[in-house]
Backbone:
């Protein structure tokens, strides 16, 4: 590979997305740090630049078609044609089915499913033109079912079907498409879950760690390392797969 590749990571202002953006930059990719607010991505961009890398913060709502198309165009113009896409942006709106509102159902579907669709559709043209590309979608162990997450678990299971279909359609263009399904990872998202359950994060994480074979909860770096592997040249024969990264088997 002679030219610098450009990656887009959505929801990259914090958590798994921020760790992934930093890792890909460390590996020599130019990285577009996409999040709802451009300003939220600025600290990640500053870190990458301070370490000698190239990065660009771009504000986007992944569930909005015009916003996605404008953001991807801006990345192509200002950073380079994106041939790596990590669909990581995510939200939770947990509730038991009988209390789940249509708004909360639609919001979760909008960010995870519609967002990954819009981002992938906008980015694939650069990948097919380059005859090389990598798409990684963030699924979850919740895809297997999780109390209080009918919306989230349906979206994360949907992403697995989406991943397999894109792998079939885009393979002939040198584009691989895979999903990573993390277990419990320590981020703002899981901190919010602990808060909602009314327990401290430490109590929550310690309890869960006892059930995880490797004896600890996951960190954003665990997922960033997995993304880095899947978007590398060495992973070119892996496509349409769902890799559970959960410190043990999941079913
Ligand atoms: P996080 O800390 O909540 O970060 C998610 C990021 O996505 C936030 O910066 C958020 O921005 C951004 N975002 C939300 N809606 C967006 C939209 N419409 N457009 C653009 N950006 C948007 O989450 P995380 O824990 O790092 O999770 C990252 C991904 O991994 C998610 O897809 C999540 O479902 C998945 N995952 C996480 C875990 C876990 O245990 N943490 C486990 C399995 C899967 P704002 O801050 O402005 O809302």
Residues:
């Amino acid at each position: 590979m002679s030219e610098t590749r450009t990656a887009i990571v959505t929801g990259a202002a914090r958590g798994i997305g921020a760790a992934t953006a930093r890792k890909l930059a460390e590996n020599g990719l130019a990285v577009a740090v996409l999040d709802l607010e451009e300003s939220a991505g600025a600290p990640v961009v500053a870190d990458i630049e301070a370490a000698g890398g190239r990065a660009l913060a771009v504000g986007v709502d992944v569930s909005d078609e015009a916003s996605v198309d404008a953001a991807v165009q801006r990345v192509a113009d200002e950073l380079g044609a994106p041939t790596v896409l990590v669909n990581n942006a995510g939200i939770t709106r947990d509730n038991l089915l009988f209390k789940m509102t249509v708004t909360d159902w639609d919001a979760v579907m909008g960010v995870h499913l519609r967002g990954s669709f819009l981002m992938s559709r906008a980015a694939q043209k650069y990948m097919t033109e380059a005859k090389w590309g990598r798409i990684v979608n963030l699924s979850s162990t919740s895809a297997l079912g999780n109390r209080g997450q009918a919306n989230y678990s349906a979206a994360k299971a949907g992403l697995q079907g989406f991943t397999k279909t894109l792998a079939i359609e885009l393979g002939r263009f040198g584009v691989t498409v895979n999903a990573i399904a993390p277990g419990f990872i320590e981020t703002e998202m899981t901190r919010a879950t602990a808060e909602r359950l009314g327990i401290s994060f430490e109590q929550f994480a310690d309890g869960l760690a006892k059930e995880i074979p490797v004896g600890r909860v996951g960190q954003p770096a665990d997922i960033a390392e997995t993304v880095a592997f899947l978007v590398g040249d060495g992973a070119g024969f892996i496509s349409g797969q769902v890799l559970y990264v959960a410190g043990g088997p999941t079913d």
Summary: The beta strands are 6-10, 30-35, 55-59, 82-87, 133-138, 175-182, 242-245. The helical segments are 15-26, 38-50, 65-78, 102-130, 150-170, 188-197, 201-209, 220-230. Residues 10-11, 13-17, 35-36, 40, 60-63, 88-91, 111, 115, 138, 140, 182, 184-185, 187-190 surround NAP (CB under 6 Å). The CA atoms of residues 21 and 36 lie 15 Å apart.
